[in-house]
């Protein structure tokens, strides 16, 4: 069963946003893909109450880095439950470790679209389960 | 008493005196013939009075002494008394040294009528003299020897003095050399300090360069991977959607080359990372069974189209000390190779682990095309591909080099065994085991959260 969900892609490379829009768009799944070219735009969207079901967050961005965006999101109680998947092209350990130690998921560029789809699926399924549990209570 | 009797008495007395004197009395006539000898003489020489009477003095001497005695007797005629030394020959032919005191005798008219020789045995004296002489000689020789010794000593002292002077000079030279050495040592110390400083600087330079290199590689990695990202997403989609067979073919070529480039970029950068001395391992205690299970779950969706059976035969509670991310990469490479080099559409990969002392030996076995012995030698070399063609876009030739570096960084060993072509291959590698003690909590809490959000 596919789940409808909103995916927010935050990446300074417009080609990445566009190709992800094309790559993740799948009639059977019904994902809605939004894009933000920098951290400020992302935060603005959240402030405008556009809350996605998952954020794909690039780390290496010129003005506001992915870490900063992450911190801002986690600071805000209305946003800090949004699951985040880091997109990173960095080969160094810092990124990888930070990604894993922060408890979020990360995926290395260039990734296989299938891989990313799986992770997104898992995130959505978790959300549903949590929601079901809470609802049951 | 009349005169004759008185004379006879007198004569008797004198005779008695003369006879018993403890000195030899020998009276000679003017021809040196014996007219009287007393008993001292006869006893001394061993002759009787009759044997000696009338014989010349010289008949009791050898030729040498005869000459001497004759000569001496002549001086007597100069009317003086002399003391001489004569050597007589005894009757038994032995010699006897005497002192002879010769006094000339004159008659009433003053005419020389003979000599009175007073003889004393001086053999004892002579012996003493001889001994004294010997002693004196010896003393002289001794003195000479002593003088020689003293001279030698003197020479020795002079030489010693000279030697002492030389030693003093040498000593001064040595002191000079010593002070030179001291200053040389000081120079060396300074040089050493300078060298150490230089080494520190160079090392700092090298470390800086290495860090720059690592940063460059990281930046390069990012810059190469960024354009590849959209390519990697869009190309498969375009390829799938394109209906025109010719265009589809072109797209296939494009796709394969991008695919190859992507792998090359990822793997080359991974290898460069592994070779960098700055790359540290983050070791954690991981349960291998659970880890493999999770990896396999992830791998399956990536191999769409092929029917793959994974067999996880790792015993439960096999705990190893590994860097999680690197071990994932290791298994990714081994599994992807197993799939790539399979023979049929159905692929069976068996993963096993055995404990051997402090190590766990992990094996990844496939039923693929296998390896010949000459291939086995090179299979871990960088850029080595089994079909020897560098145009094979499916393989970068780096996967196993990466595996080798990862295993070696963990202090282990990796090797491969194969029965030959078509008989599959088994890759073995060793990892350090962790000794699990009682009461240890579930150490996979970390693992479960990492990367895989498992279904609750």
What are the secondary-structure elements of chain B, in order, as H or E?
HEEHHHEEEHHEHEEHEEHHEEH
Strand order of the largest sheet of chain B: 2-1-5-4-3
Helix/sheet category of chain B = alpha+beta
- Summarize the helix and strand pattern of chain A as letters: EHEHEHEHEH
Estimate the strand proportion of chain A. Answer: 15-25%
Measured distance between first and last alpha carbons of chain A: 24 Å
The percentage helix of chain B is 40-55%
Major sheet characteristics of chain B? 5 strands, antiparallel
Rg calc of chain A: 14 Å
Query: Which architecture of the domain at 281-453 in chain B would the CATH scheme give at its second level?
Result: 2-Layer Sandwich
Nearest-angstrom radius of gyration of chain B?
69 Å
Structure summary, number of beta strands of chain B: 12
The 3D shape of chain B can be described as: rod-shaped
- What average pLDDT do the residues of chain A reach? 82
Brief write-up:
The complex is a heterodimer of chains A (137) and B (456). Chain A is of the alpha/beta class and 137 residues long.
Structure description:
The complex is a heterodimer of chains A (137) and B (456). By secondary structure, chain A is of the alpha/beta class. Chain A is built from five helices and five strands, in the order E-H-E-H-E-H-E-H-E-H. In chain A, strands 2-1-3-4-5 form a five-stranded parallel β-sheet, with helices on both faces. Chain A is globular, with a radius of gyration of 14 Å. Chain A starts with a strand and ends with a helix. The model of chain A has no long low-confidence stretch (mean pLDDT 82). Chain B is α+β, with helices and mostly antiparallel strands. In chain B, the strands form three sheets. Chain B has a five-stranded antiparallel β-sheet, with helices on both faces. Chain B has a five-stranded mixed β-sheet with strand order 7-9-10-12-11. In chain B, strands 6-8 form a two-stranded antiparallel ribbon. Chain B has eleven helices and twelve strands. In chain B, helix 5 (123-241) runs antiparallel to helix 6 (245-275) and helix 6 runs parallel beside helix 10 (399-409). In chain B, 54% of the residues lie in helices and 19% in strands. The N and C termini of chain B lie far apart (191 Å).
